[in-house]
């Protein structure tokens, strides 16, 4: 029986650990030998997700230090499973004693109990956003593999609440310069004000994360079931709080006509050109070599300070005010998590694609 804690077929990650347990981590399998890899490479990515960096993040302070404990020798991957551990140092499980008895609306408490009849109620336990450390550590390795073949991901907060970035002011260098991962400097102040109002009222909001993949080769993805769009949707929706994924025009396509939605082709000097990219770089489940555009809808943080109605284990109707340390907005912290899952999926699909043509097999074994 699978425990459902892993993702991928040829390049896999298995995450483990609980928010208030001793540590969290990941085992990455399928990484080729000979990739340069240091703890610092992983740390750079983990720092983008780290809690406690601003008032717009959970106040839980952790250094999230990555220790690579297997699969790397003399600075290079050995081709064997890579294990990365991050110790939890700032557990305050007592702050969470109340959630052992009641079910937080919008969180996993109720369904976890329904499934297992038992739950690690120290914070979100296994359902905590802290689990995503393993995904980001795995993503750091996937991104290194992708950068060796010039595939580049750009991921950012597209909207927070109902405030959207202005494409005319898009500046990639801004993304990791502000606490909100907004590529539009002019929107930062407005979003901060909106969030401060919500925090004051014990409320939260969601938003949309956008990821653009450049230099992706054509031919990734299977014609049925393991389609590239299906795999990306699955891996990104496996992140807690992600409630929708769209590729290209996505949900907008439903209200367009065929003439409006189709991307017309032409040849220019023997090069096949698409006039538009409404499909977001994937047709028939297979990448066409143009930019892949993915958007993920993130829900508002469920654990909010406002009074909410719920029930407890003794079947009483109760009003609650959630204590503990929570992200007033998930979007900025989830940007690197989405990017990591996309990177892991791409590497998995690249490796799975290697035996799709006899030519590839011959190149590998005869050249
Ligand atoms: C990076 C990250 C941080 C999160 N932080 C919080 C948080 O502080 N408080 C909270 O209630 N939920 C937080 N969440 C969301 C919950 O983990 C998520 O809502 C929960 O697992 C239930 O899953 P679902 O929303 O997909 O149904 C976070 C999620 C992510 C990815
Ligand atoms: C600690 C982190 O974020 C946590 C994500 C989270 C949740 O429910 O997702 C709830 C809070 O933690 P706890 O598990 O203690 O309730 C956040 O502080 C982290 O991401 O490193």
Describe it:
The protein is an alpha+beta fold. It has a single domain, classed as 4-Layer Sandwich (Chorismate synthase, AroC fold), CATH 3.60.150.10. It contains eight helices and 18 strands. It has helices spanning 39-49, 109-116, 132-148, 185-200, 228-237, 258-261, 331-353, 358-366; strands at residues 6-7, 12-17, 23-29, 67-70, 72-73, 76-77, 82-87, 152-160, 163-164, 207-214, 242-247, 265-268, 271-274, 282-283, 286-287, 292-298, 308-311, 317-320. It has a five-stranded antiparallel sheet with strand order 1-2-3-7-4, covered by helices on one side. Strands 9-8-10-16-11 form a five-stranded antiparallel sheet. β2 (12-17) and β3 form a beta hairpin. α5 packs antiparallel against α7 (331-353). The protein starts with 5 loop residues before the first strand and ends with a helix. Residues 19, 51, 58, 60, 62, 123-124, 128-130, 240, 324-327 line the site of the ligand C=C(O[C@@H]1CC(C(=O)O)=C[C@@H](OP(=O)(O)O)[C@H]1O)C(=O)O.
Q: Quick summary of this structure?
A:
Homotetramer. With 367 residues, the chain is of the alpha+beta class. 27% of the residues lie in helices and 22% in strands.
């Amino acid at each position: 029986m699978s425990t459902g804690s892993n993702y991928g077929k040829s390049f896999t990650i298995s995450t483990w650990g609980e928010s208030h347990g001793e540590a969290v981590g990941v085992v990455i399998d399928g990484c080729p030998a000979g990739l340069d890899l240091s703890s610092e490479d992983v740390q750079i990515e983990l720092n983008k997700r780290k809690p406690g960096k601003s008032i717009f993040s959970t106040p839980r302070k952790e250094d999230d230090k990555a220790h690579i404990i297997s699969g790397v020798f003399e600075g290079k991957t050995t081709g064997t499973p890579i294990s990365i551990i991050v110790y939890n140092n700032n557990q305050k499980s007592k702050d969470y004693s109340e959630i052992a008895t009641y079910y937080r609306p919008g969180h996993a408490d109720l369904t976890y109990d329904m499934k297992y009849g038992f739950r690690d109620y120290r914070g979100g336990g296994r359902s905590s956003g802290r689990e995503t450390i393993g995904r980001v550590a795995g993503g750091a390795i996937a991104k290194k593999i992708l950068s060796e073949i010039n595939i580049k991901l750009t991921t950012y907060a597209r909207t927070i609440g109902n405030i959207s970035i202005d494409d005319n002011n898009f500046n990639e260098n801004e993304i990791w310069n502000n606490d909100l991962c907004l590529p539009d400097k002019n929107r930062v102040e407005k979003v901060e004000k909106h969030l401060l109002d919500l925090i004051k009222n014990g409320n939260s909001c969601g938003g949309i994360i956008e990821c653009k993949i450049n230099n992706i080769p054509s031919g990734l993805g299977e014609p049925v079931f393991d389609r590239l769009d299906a795999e990306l949707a699955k891996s990104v929706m496996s992140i807690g709080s992600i409630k929708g994924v769209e590729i290209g025009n996505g949900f907008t396509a439903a209200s367009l006509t065929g003439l409006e939605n189709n991307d017309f082709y032409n040849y220019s000097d023997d090069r096949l050109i698409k006039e538009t990219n409404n499909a977001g770089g994937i047709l028939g489940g297979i990448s066409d070599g143009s930019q892949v555009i993915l958007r993920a809808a993130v829900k508002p943080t469920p654990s909010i300070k406002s009074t909410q109605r719920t029930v407890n284990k003794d079947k009483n109707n109760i009003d609650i005010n959630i204590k503990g340390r929570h992200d007033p907005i998930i979007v900025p912290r989830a940007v690197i998590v989405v990017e990591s899952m996309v990177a892991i999926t791409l590497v998995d699909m690249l490796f799975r694609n290697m035996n799709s043509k006899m030519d590839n097999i011959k190149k590998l074994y005869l050249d």
